[in-house]
Write a structure and sequence with these properties.
Order of helices and strands: HHHHHHHH
Largest sheet: none
Number of domains: 1
Shape: globular
Distance between the termini: 15 Å
Radius of gyration: 14 Å
Low-confidence stretches: none
Number of strands: 0
């Protein structure tokens, strides 16, 4: 099963979009799936209300930190590199989907869906693979 299929299967099991993307790569970033699942819970549904960042993109950005951070809590040295990776994830996701905001992606105000949840999840996986090489 490829990562897109795995992420969709997790979403079908009621994982939110963030959890589906992030948990599909948990082992690649040295994390257990339960911890990633818990960390991603609040990021679904556009951070709980469709007004903010798409959960699939949030999951991708979470993976950037998990993959790239040096974990040096007393003297962090990787933030700028992680921010650069995150910006690239956001840019590519927006190019593929038309927006980064859940409400806009789902067409809540316009009636025009730019990208369905399953397609956002697939795009989230794609940008993780392209940018983070996971």
């Amino acid at each position: 099963m490829d990562k897109k299929e795995k992420a969709i299967a997790l979403h079908d099991k009621k994982f939110n979009c963030c959890q589906a993307v992030a948990c599909a790569f948990a082992s690649e970033v040295g994390m257990d799936e339960k911890t990633v699942f818990q960390a991603g819970e609040g990021f679904g549904l556009g951070m709980g209300g469709m007004d903010a960042t798409c959960g699939a993109l949030s999951g991708a950005v979470m993976l950037a930190g998990l993959k790239n951070s040096d974990g040096a809590i007393d003297a962090p040295g990787t933030k700028q590199d992680t921010y650069k990776l995150s910006r690239e994830l956001v840019t590519r996701f927006k190019e593929k989907t038309g927006s980064t905001v859940c409400r806009e992606l789902k067409g809540v105000d316009t009636g025009t869906v730019l990208c369905s949840c399953p397609d956002c999840i697939r795009c989230g996986v794609e940008v993780v693979q392209e940018v983070l090489g996971l």
